[in-house]
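Take our chain:
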Amino acid sequence: MSKTQKALKRFEKQVASNVSHGFGAFMRRVGRFFVRVFKVFDNKLTIMIVPHSQSKVINFQTNVFALMLGSLISVGILVSFFYFNRRSISANMEISSLVNQNRETLASLDELRDENANLFQAAKRFQASLSQSLSLLGIDQVTNNPETSATSGDLSALFSTSELTQGSLKEVSEVRELTNYLEDAVKPIEQIGKMLKTQQNLFTEIPSICPVKNPNYHISMAFGPNIHPLNGNWYIHKGLDFSTWRTGDAVLSTAYGQVVTVGYDFSFGNYIIIKHNHGMYTRYAHLKDTRVQKGQIVDQGQVIGTIGNTGVTTGPHLHYEVHIGSDVVDPAKYININLSK
């Protein structure tokens, strides 16, 4: 063995010896540390409870370790109590909030059901009105097909609980049926719109609007048998009297036509007669003034004069007549007015 190898062997032994001695010294220090700690925790303590009265003094012995462990356990229990108490309060508040939301939801649901019931009452009236209109116009009505009841639009199926989908709300099923009905009703309504569009000229050629522009009017005398306001005798009133309780309100031509007379009469006062297509004439009497001339072409809704108090009257009003040839007819049949106004 060479000198170098021998030196390495001695170095290795020296290093191993130093490491062994160092580790041993470290472990002895650790052991002494834990012994001192154990001695500290094992120190005996005497706790005395001295009452203010003459009762016997209470004392008990323990050590530092037991005292610290008991303190830690007490603090842990106290912290846990506050933590879970806080969680309990938060959970109760959340439950209370959910209960309030549930009450509001139930109230909204009740309101929705009431509105749903009102909707179906309106749907019934709509069906009756639409069916009547379609019958008058000769348009095919929306009918219920048993083979396609799931998609049929007939409202008669809306109120049948036997066809409800199992597990679904009655209101949801009814709204679904109503939607189907309205979708099917679109086609006949579109047909009505097309018919009205093609007949647009006809509606402007017949006296189909109110002759008074002011909507706050009332019918002071209807067409037909009435008691004369001056002599008290029964007579046939040949027109409608529109009153707005004042003079000066605009009077409109109720249809397209040509002015054939602008004049004054002892009974009618200032009056205008307009000739329309289809052999129809309209008269506007008791006017304050006139805004058209004889021979002038007027459009439906054009202002031709104002309400006055000329001629034989008991107050300012418009006397309005509709003639077909030589016959005088009730103007209320051609315009949408409320005779009770």
Observations:
- Confidence is low (pLDDT under 50) at residues 144-153, 158-167.
